[in-house]
Amino acid sequence: MRVLVTGGAGFIGSHIVDALCRAGHEPSVVDDLSSGSRSNLPADIPLFEGDVRDADRLAAVFRETRPQLVCHQAAQMSVSRSVRDPRFDADVNLIGLINVLDLSVQGDVERFVFASSGGVLYGDVFEPADEDHPSNPVSPYGISKWGGEKYLEFYCRQHGLTGAAMRYANVYGPRQNPHGEAGVVAIFCRTMLGGGQITINGDGSCIRDYVYVEDVARANLLALTGDLPTGMTPLNVGTAHRTDVNQLAGVLRTLCTAHLQEAGRTVTIPEPAHGPHRAGDLQSSLVSSRRLSELLGWQATVPLNEGLQHTVRWFGEHTEA
Ligand SMILES: NC(=O)c1ccc[n+]([C@@H]2O[C@H](COP(=O)([O-])OP(=O)(O)OC[C@H]3O[C@@H](n4cnc5c(N)ncnc54)[C@H](O)[C@@H]3O)[C@@H](O)[C@H]2O)c1
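Above: the input record for the complex with nicotinamide-adenine-dinucleotide. Below: its predicted structure, written as tokens.
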């Protein structure tokens, strides 16, 4: 089927494009390349450079690509920027979404999948949260993801769209941007492979649920093409496994050391330093993906150690010595 992936030149979006190609679909991408890159995509995938806030540009993309399915990954995803500039956050994450939803309705799109977030909706949870866990977003970014789900729900009810809101846990893997504030695995990999010392915010006891990006891409593929109830279905995408930042850093230090040794470099990666706790960071974030498993047969298939090995290898090949 013809699938438009917004933000498809980014980290998760480009893996969704790969999964769509492998399954025989025809993906196209619209992306403003603010954090994504053409190099994340296979050369033959049509990439339309454009901003989801620009309704005219988006309409031209819809005319040209005539999507049957839409996967909306494009977003402003910096929590701190959303705090500094809530208007910009709402512009991209709500007005941009509404632009894509309007064109999807006009173009008779059958299915709309939206990238949401488990962490920012559920807040601190010490047991894996299911989709009925109360939402209480505190940052403008969280509020725009929550509002985005509500808009999707409205468009589904009003216009007969079928939709899914993918509430991701902490996604990691190859192509993640190591320059942002999120993406701790990417940030640690880049620093360690350069022989540098990472700084852990606080004492490193924060618990996260790390899910490998190819598993997340497969969840999107299933949500786009599998049997879903009518209306809007929220779906958590995570493993429910707890890992604290100290454990994560320890495993990555071992893997990065081994990678550097294989490359003939004898570098001793320093032990992590600890900085102040970052205000607003959750102590614990975990999601249960039982609904995704029951509805669409999804399971996370890549254990953390294996996913981290793939990630270290990728960053090793893409980080200058
Ligand atoms: N990475 C995670 O752990 C995580 C967790 C929860 C939710 N999410 C959500 O998943 C989605 C994808 O995130 P990612 O981690 O791949 O980040 P990313 O930055 O790699 O991808 C976002 C893509 O959207 C594009 N984009 C940004 N603003 C745009 C605009 N105005 N118009 C068009 N394109 C625009 C960027 O260039 C980029 O290619 C986002 O919606 C994000 O909020 C990610």
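Notes for the reader.
The chain has eleven helices and 13 strands.
The two ends are 42 Å apart (CA to CA).
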